[in-house]
Amino acid sequence: MEFYDVLEKRHSVRDFDKKDVEQKKVQNILDAVQRCPSAGNLQAYKVYVVRSKEAKEGIVAAALYQEFIAQAPVLLVFCADKAQSAAKYGERGSDLYAIQDATIAAAYSQLAATAEGLSCVWVGAFDPLEVSRLIKAGPHEVPIALIPIGYPKGKAWETGRRPLKEIITEV
User: Which domains does the chain have, with CATH numbers?
Assistant: First the structure.
């Protein structure tokens, strides 16, 4: 799929088919995540791949009972590794760069999932302490985003976009 086609086809999907996601497609997504840019090339993030029904159901409870999370065959949990970034950049690394790194990685996962013919959605509404506990995250890893991935059930609805003139300012 061409890059601009990927951008056009990427939509948030919250209704997933039961069909499992092939391991090769998951690996391609993770490979794309590994290639994303990061501050100082530290790659100060960790990705947890969640497939078990029990783990996903626990995360659903930690995510305000957004049931579609458990419906997706694959759930990626992106965590900022604050200690890794702080070791080089101090407080700014811990408070900003690690979060940016994890955010960029999550965004790359969405584009890669789309390129693989899959659908996903960014989930930001969750209790980070509870998600950390459920995935057994390290003490300096902070969950930033949940990305449920799977085949869409039906057609995704397209959302409108604000006109460029409303979001772009040239200086």
Answer: 3-167 (3.40.109.10)
